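The data are set out underneath:

___
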Amino acid sequence: MKLLTKLLAPALFLSAFTFAMPSLAEGGTMRVATANPSRILAQMKETQAKNKTEQTERQQLDEQEKAKVKEIQDIKEQRDKFSAKNTPDWKTKTDQILTKSIELQTWVELKKAELTRRHKEEIKALFDKIQDTIAQVAADQKIDLVIADYGTDFPEDLEAITPDQLHALIRQKNVLFIGKNVDISAIVTARLDAAYH
């Protein structure tokens, strides 16, 4: 009985695999495509719009921070010019400087944390859109498997990079050959841009 089980197990596994892959069993071929999520993310109009918004917000926060720093410097200058050391007025202004400095540090850290959290949430939401759109394009084009291609092109001037950087680029090449019309990144990007208002 054990011998029969050992002989039948591979056959059962193969038959289960065949039933799990109907496109292979019926059509005899599997359609495969690639997509580069990083390139799609960088080229999407929505990503570019979000990057502009974030850059504007960072500039506004920098201006607010500079204004808060200037306020602290102004209090310090007033204290140093008009208050004698160790007087009640000097101590009051020193307390103000300390309080405002701590408030500024807290405000800066809070704003950084808010921006970082929102940025991560936006990237995740964009990636979900990319993944959903890849699935839609694959279904429309009857593609059975889409492989993520995260590889980057080698620079034309290899003198500009170190051997370690070149090795890292080679290790990132998870897709070594892509035939014509196999990369659906442009189709996915166009569809995402069309859906973006």
Summary: The mean pLDDT is 85. The longest strand covers residues 32-35. Strands lie at 32-35, 145-148. The chain has one domain: 30-195.
